[in-house]
């Protein structure tokens, strides 16, 4: 195989992997209520960030936290789907796996909310 063909094949594989990733995100947004909630909160925080003129460092913190919460929700969704496939009937350990995965998203969402309060409350208080 020539060098150019290999590069082209590798590029096509990379593009497909991005497509699969975006398809997964879209699927989760369409089907998961909590993902819709996280996306709506993210949009509200972005709007508030522009209105309250948060600093570059605060934007970076928000972006990292957005990624952490959304990635956690995606992983939780994937875990729940796999558990449902493997264990289609009620099982205590399957329930625990799903609860623990959901707990990990909750921890990241609480951390993001606390950071959000630290960033936004002083700016809101300054307006009052």
UniProtKB/TrEMBL annotation:
Binding site for a divalent metal cation: 32, 80
Bilayer-crossing regions: 35-52, 58-79, 100-121
Cofactor(s) for this UniProt protein: Mg(2+)
Topological relation to the membrane, as annotated: Multi-pass membrane protein
One annotated Gene Ontology cellular component of this protein: plasma membrane
UniProt record similarity statement: Belongs to the bacterial diacylglycerol kinase family.
Entry binding sites for ATP: 20, 32, 80, 98-99
Name this polypeptide is given: Diacylglycerol kinase (ATP)
Pfam families: DAGK_prokar
Taxon lineage: Bacteria, Bacillati, Bacillota, Clostridia, Lachnospirales
Primary site of residence: membrane
Organism encoding this protein: Anaerobium acetethylicum
Subcellular location: Cell membrane
Keywords: ATP-binding, Cell membrane, Kinase, Lipid biosynthesis, Lipid metabolism, Magnesium, Membrane, Metal-binding, Nucleotide-binding, Phospholipid biosynthesis, Phospholipid metabolism, Transferase, Transmembrane, Transmembrane helix
